[in-house]
Amino acid sequence: MRKKNEKEQKYLMGGVVLTGTGKRLENAAVALEGHKIVSIDRNGASPPKGAEVLDLRDKVISPGLIDAHVHMGVYPEGFPEDFGDGNEMVEPLTPHLRALDALYPDDEAFTDALAGGVTCVQSLPGSANVIGGQGLIVKTKPNLIERMALKAPSAMKAALGENPVRVYTALKKAPNTRMGVAALMREAFVKAQNYREKLNFTQTKGDPLERDLLMESLLPVLDRKLTLRVHCHRVDDIQTAVRIAEEFNLDFTLEHCTEGHKIASWLAEKKVRVAVGPSMSTKPKIELRAKTWDTPRILWENGVRFCIISDHPVTPVEHLNVYASLATRAGLPPEEALRGVTLYAAEHLGIADRVGSIEPGKDADIVVWDGDPLDSRSRAVKTFIAGELVYDSGLRY
Questions:
Q1: Is 284 exposed, middle or buried (0-12, 13-18, 19+ CB in 10 A)?
Q2: Which residue of 101, 294, 356, 377 has the fewest C-beta atoms within 10 A of its own C-beta?
Q3: Given the DSSP bridges, would you call strands 28-33 and 36-42 parallel, antiparallel or unpaired?
Q4: Are 155 and 224 members of one domain?
Q5: Same-domain pairing of 265 and 302
Q6: 3-class DSSP state for residue 25?
Q7: Could you please report the per-residue DSSP string of 39-83?
Q8: Residue 358, SS3?
Q9: Is residue 18 located within the same domain as residue 86?
Q10: Are residues 10 and 79 in the same domain?
Q11: pTM of the prediction?
């Protein structure tokens, strides 16, 4: 019997361990203690005394997959679209909205994610608004939201291009053009700057200032404490996102970046971070006409740091490994494709100290596959989050 406060130990004896850092280790074992990875050993080493030993020598072990851009929980599976909570399509500037307040932990997408080896996601508001609200990062084991959350808020969502133009043209209010979208975004940040000056002045004088939740929500973005994640597909929108971020000295990422391959060398010069996808979808909008699986490869060839996303429910989160495999068919090296859904995704989210690779000290988020995870025929057979077995293909949950 385990003594009180003694941490549970597991010893995963694998055939191949893909660390997520580019290393492929044959006949290796991964030792887990409590919530953490403690070591990577050669098979044949003695397991820790009292550890549960799992013989997985005909399997492949990888880090848990990470999807850096989804709408899980705010657009639950099996619900009518009108029931979704991802967009408040009344005003184009809603930075005070929080996905945390709408996340539905019983969304079937979370259990589907576990079956696909996806252990961590960033769930974001949609792209109907110029500034749409705050996202959060969660582990995918359904639980109380506060227990699932790894980081909340994780970012501020913004959008350029067709989506806000289409929504607010129909409502007969601004913005009606890309110029209008950019102008409203700038105006919001200028107002936030003015609000901060007033706040600093009144604090110095000792006088109270009436709180403004919209402006308060933008202050961490201006202070580079909260990343601005900008929905942008076309080259004009991509360049506008970079331009505005540089004007206000913001920490930012480009989300989707569908035409990024056209200006990859410029993106490299700007040292941007990019989330690419969903590349498996159709092309229902004009700004998706240039969508191609070549984008991750071309970004990689130019030294642009990227990750690969599903944009669930646009494409299903449980097939994230398949999307990475299709990028390899377009010429992306397999080790880069795997990092695109593990370590690079963690770096994109600013959580690489916790997840994204199999290294001592990191969270024990591990997936066991019955083959190469970049082979679309392979299945996740066991998924661990924080050392806990949360999915087993041989069991029903």
A1: exposed
A2: 377
A3: antiparallel
A4: yes
A5: yes
A6: strand
A7: EEEEBTBPPPTTPEEEEEEEEEEEEPEEEEEE-TTTS-TTS-GGG
A8: coil
A9: no
A10: no
A11: 0.96
